[in-house]
Amino acid sequence: MIGRVLLSVFLGCAMALPAMAQQSNSPPTSPPAANAPAQPPACPPGTHWEEAGYIAHGKYRPARCARDDGRE
Fold first, then answer.
1. H-run or E-run covering 66
2. What is the DSSP letter of 67?
3. For labelling alongside 39, which of 12, 22, 24, 29 has CA 20 to 30 A away?
4. What is the DSSP track for 1-64?
5. Taking the complete model, does pTM exceed 0.85, yes or no?
6. What pLDDT is stored for residue 37 in this prediction?
7. How far apart are alpha carbons 51 and 49 in whole angstroms?
């Protein structure tokens, strides 16, 4: 008796899974970060964004907000 009940529950679930998978006709959406262009963080007033890179004498400086020092 219990075997028949378990078998009927299993078969009912097995037949419902393909029906549930067919209900969604829309394609999967991509994450928002993949579509958005990379933008530097907002720097406080009096500073500007400097990209990471090598400076004089082969020293590496990470990206950062740097002071303007009167230049634009």
1. strand 64-67
2. E
3. 29
4. -HHHHHHHHHHHHHHHHHHHHHH--SPPPPPHHHHSPP-PPPPPTTEEEE--EE-GGG-EE--E
5. no
6. 63
7. 7
pLDDT tens digit sequence for 17-58: 565 555 556 666 666 655 566 666 789 999 999 999 999 999
Give yes or no for a contact between 40 and 47, defined as CB atoms under 8 angstroms apart: no
Rounded alpha-carbon distances, angstroms, from residue 21 to 17, 25, 28, 52, 64:
6, 9, 13, 46, 47
Contact 40/52 with Cβ under 8 angstroms? Answer: no
Token pair belonging to 42: 């907002």
